[in-house]
Automatic annotation (TrEMBL):
Component of the proteasome complex. This is Proteasome subunit beta. GO terms for cellular component: cytoplasm; nucleus; proteasome core complex, beta-subunit complex. Component of the proteasome, a multicatalytic proteinase complex which is characterized by its ability to cleave peptides with Arg, Phe, Tyr, Leu, and Glu adjacent to the leaving group at neutral or slightly basic pH. The proteasome has an ATP-dependent proteolytic activity. It comes from Diversispora epigaea. Keywords: Cytoplasm, Nucleus, Proteasome. Belongs to the peptidase T1B family. It comes from the Eukaryota. PANTHER family: METALLOPROTEASE TLDD (PTHR32194), PROTEASOME SUBUNIT BETA TYPE-3 (PTHR32194:SF10). It is found in: Cytoplasm; Nucleus. One of its GO terms (biological process) is proteasome-mediated ubiquitin-dependent protein catabolic process. The keyword Cytoplasm applies. InterPro entries: Ntn_hydrolases_N, Proteasome_beta_3, Proteasome_bsu_CS, Proteasome_sua/b, Proteasome_suB-type.
């Protein structure tokens, strides 16, 4: 078992029509043992930029604080919020700095830029970026998520349709992964607001 799958988890991000969504399960476990059921792997960096950190929980918590600190320092220096694309470069360079002793996470970045254009990307544990125009996945459920997202995702989804699509994809995937589950949290980022909803799922 790799360290990245030791605690389990699932994160997915999708692009819609002038909106973007990112969601994760809420299980915190140690292999087959469930320790907590309120641990989301998705964290806000700015009002319109979120980062998902599936992987080893200790590294998830460490990187969350590092990214929050670096984003705040960027805002102080530049006097503006960090853009999602710039945030992805920040995340990538932070991971690459530790390439000889890497953090065991596979980050996802999702958000809207200053022109409200959606942006999502995923990367490996040393920061190699994969930018797409549909969806990205991470965690122990990623094989399930790839198959389901390819089946249900459509271009130009409205916010409510995007919420329904990403929710069904995530719930169906974590139902087939004993390392993920115990509910989910979904963030839909639109130009006007961020819609956050909590989902119930199988509790076994």
């Amino acid at each position: 078992m790799s360290p990245g799958s030791y605690n389990g988890g699932a994160v997915v991000a999708m692009i819609g029509k002038n909106c973007v969504a990112i969601a994760s399960d809420k299980r915190f476990g140690v292999q087959m043992q469930t320790i907590g059921t309120e641990f989301s792997k998705v964290f806000p960096v700015t009002e319109k930029s979120y980062v998902g950190l599936p992987g080893l929980t200790t590294d998830t918590q460490t990187l969350q604080e590092i990214f929050r600190f670096k984003a705040n320092m960027y805002k102080l220096r530049e006097e503006r919020e960090i853009e999602p694309r710039t945030l992805s470069k920040l995340v990538s360079s932070t991971l690459y700095e530790r390439r000889w002793g890497p953090y065991f996470v596979h980050p996802l970045v999702a958000g809207l830029d200053k022109n409200n254009q959606p942006f999502i990307c995923a990367m490996d544990l040393i920061g190699c970026i994969t930018e797409t125009c549909d969806f990205v996945v991470g965690g122990t459920s990623e094989e399930n998520l790839f198959g389901i997202c390819e089946s249900v995702w459509e271009p130009d989804l409205e916010p409510e349709d995007l919420f329904e699509t990403i929710s069904q994809a995530l719930l169906c995937s974590i139902d087939r992964d004993c390392f993920a589950g115990w509910g989910a949290v979904v963030h839909v980022i639109t130009p006007e607001r961020v819609i956050t909803r909590t989902l119930k799922s199988r509790m076994d």
